[in-house]
Specification:
By secondary structure, the protein is an alpha+beta fold. The protein has 2 domains: about 40 residues; about 90 residues, Ribosomal Protein S8, Chain: A, domain 1. About 55% of the residues lie in helices and about 20% in strands. It is built from 4 helices and 3 strands. A hairpin with a 3-residue loop joins strand 2 and strand 3. It is globular and about 50 Å long.
Length: about 130
């Protein structure tokens, strides 16, 4: 089941990059998705994939809310923090985690450290002291 989710993720990235639904593009996308090397680290559990997909569904309205907040209430303070990667994440799940963090307007992943950390840039409102 995880291999199918990995294949679907690769095809989704391909179609987002090419924005072409022609038969030739579909054949090329399937071919590339099948030829890309597979990761043979610990297999991701179906539960982790479902949580990541649910996170995408939740991130869409959150992104709109944050965009409106930034428009009407200026965010002029910046932080760079380190966030721990969840244990036993496959490369596909790490990609989805980075996508979710970067999808919202207030955060962006600057770097993924191989030791298991994301370097995250955030904008926020300065808290009164």
């Amino acid at each position: 089941m995880i291999r199918y989710l990995d294949l679907i993720l690769r095809l989704a990235i391909w179609f987002l990059l090419t924005a072409d639904g022609s038969l030739a593009n579909i054949i090329i996308g399937v071919g590339i998705a099948l030829l890309l090397p597979r990761s043979y680290t610990a297999p991701g559990a179906l539960k982790d994939w479902l949580r990541a997909l649910w996170g995408i569904v939740v991130a869409i309205p959150k992104a709109y809310i944050e965009a409106v907040e930034i428009i009407f209430r200026p965010h002029n303070h910046e932080d760079v923090t380190m966030e721990r990667v969840k244990p036993q994440r496959t490369p596909g799940l790490i990609f989805l985690d980075i996508f979710l963090i970067t999808f919202t307007p207030k955060t962006i992943v600057l770097k993924y450290h191989e030791q298991g950390w994301y370097e995250v840039h955030r904008v926020r409102r300065r808290q009164p002291r």
